[in-house]
Design the sequence.
């Protein structure tokens, strides 16, 4: 089980470029027809797309799970938060810096909530966003 | 969004989406980079204790984000957060709504706080969230 010793643990930074082709695939998948997202070179990204970019270009998929010894099959997404500080547009190259912010046991240890905070910077070093995910681990019950 | 300032209680976000299919989950798996098999591989889902595959929470949040940016320009969104209250099943027909709960001055600008929900066709809340937007 993940314990307090995980708090503060940082994982491999991920660098990802906002590429028009794979952004179009995302927009089409969601049935997104808002013209603001297809407005040439300065188009913004949809509000949840930062989460995707980090996963798409991670060299080690689900690194924070494997590094903490968590079985992917026991994980649910509990909460998700985005704070936007500066625009992110097509062509930007972003770097994600994930780190464990907290570990909380719930229901007498039946579940563990893990918060991973991820500041995001762009190619100019500007802090464009903070992404925070809370995952719920369904712990195995002792038999 | 319109130039008029909204009032507390105004429902400024409302959008309905087509039922969620297995095909949509497969597309989202590829498009999002989230390759967790629990959303596309029924054998994996069953071994994990679920009766079937189910929607990615972030697909549902993606729909909520789409409903939000239909009403508010992406550049005006300052924060967007949600709690995943319940698993979204195959076939779910989702409705996303956002209601103004507070008008605030923050970061040197006028902002509004929105309460956001995503419900299925039975009225069950799947996502309960919040956004802060610049007016």
Sequence:
């Amino acid at each position: 089980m993940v314990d307090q010793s995980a708090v503060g643990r940082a994982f491999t930074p991920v660098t990802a470029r906002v590429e028009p082709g794979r952004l179009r695939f995302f927009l089409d998948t969601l049935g997104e027809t808002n013209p603001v997202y297809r407005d040439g070179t300065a188009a913004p990204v949809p509000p949840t797309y930062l989460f995707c970019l980090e996963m798409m270009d991670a060299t080690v998929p689900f690194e924070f799970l494997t590094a903490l010894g968590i079985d992917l099959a026991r994980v649910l997404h509990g909460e998700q938060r985005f704070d936007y500080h500066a625009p992110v547009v097509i062509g930007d190259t972003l770097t994600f810096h994930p780190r464990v912010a907290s570990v909380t046991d719930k229901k007498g240890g039946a579940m563990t909530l893990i918060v991973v905070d991820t500041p995001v910077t762009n190619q100019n070093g500007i802090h464009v966003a903070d992404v925070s995910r809370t995952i719920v681990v369904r712990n195995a019950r002792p038999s | 969004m319109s130039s008029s300032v909204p009032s507390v209680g105004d429902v400024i976000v409302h959008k309905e989406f087509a039922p969620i299919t297995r095909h949509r989950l497969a597309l989202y798996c590829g498009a999002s980079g989230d390759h967790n098999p629990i959303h596309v591989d029924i054998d994996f889902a069953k071994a994990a204790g679920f009766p079937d595959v189910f929607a990615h929470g972030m697909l549902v949040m993606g729909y909520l984000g789409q409903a939000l940016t239909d009403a508010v320009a992406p550049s005006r969104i300052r924060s967007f957060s949600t709690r995943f209250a319940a698993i979204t099943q195959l076939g779910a027909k989702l409705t996303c709504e956002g209601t103004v709960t507070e008008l605030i001055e923050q970061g040197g600008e006028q902002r509004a706080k929105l309460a956001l929900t995503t419900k299925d066709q039975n009225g069950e809340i799947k996502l309960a969230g919040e956004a802060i937007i610049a007016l």
In short: The first helix of chain A runs from residue 20 to 29.
